[in-house]
Write a structure and sequence with these properties.
alpha+beta; disordered C terminus; 5-stranded antiparallel sheet; 155 residues
């Protein structure tokens, strides 16, 4: 009986570990955005290069276009796994692997230059966290290594 009980405990522990490993991520992997009255557009998080705040909305910028989502930038940031998008300004998030260079301005804030020459200011409040993330290399590889089609929860 004691041996059988030990076996059952082992099986139960293995089943619990398996269940834990299959638990879904609390973060979004994609957003579904209403385009018009005819349907929705799927925007994978890995395809988003930067996000800007526009009043009660955020604009998700991808290589080919941008999408307007009714959300605050804070809520958008909370819905995405931190290494994917990093806050650089009160009105902007950026994917580290989309950054081509970081420029220090002589009499002003740092500036991020993206692969498409888009420029975003790094806010003073976010500068240290941004610098630490860049130095650690928190980006998920280079822009060419980014996967463009993960599946996940819908927004």
């Amino acid at each position: 009986p004691a041996r059988r009980l030990a076996e059952l405990r082992e099986v139960l522990a293995a089943l619990r570990a398996d269940l834990e490993s299959k638990r879904p991520s609390p973060f979004e992997r994609e957003f579904w955005i209403r385009e018009n009255s005819s349907g929705f557009a799927r925007v994978p998080v890995d395809a988003i290069d930067w996000v800007t705040s526009e009043d009660d909305y955020v604009r998700l910028h991808t290589r080919g276009r941008s999408y307007l989502l009714r959300s605050s930038i804070r809520k958008c940031e909370e819905r995405v796994d931190p290494p994917h998008l990093l806050r650089v300004h009160r009105k902007a998030l950026v994917r580290i692997s989309a950054i081509r260079e970081v420029r220090n301005q002589p009499m002003g804030p740092q500036e991020v230059v993206l692969y498409n020459d888009e420029r975003l200011r790094v806010g003073r409040v976010y500068a240290k966290r941004f610098k630490d993330a860049v130095m650690r290399g928190d980006g998920r590889g280079t822009e060419r290594e980014q996967s463009a089609a993960p599946s996940g929860r819908a927004a």
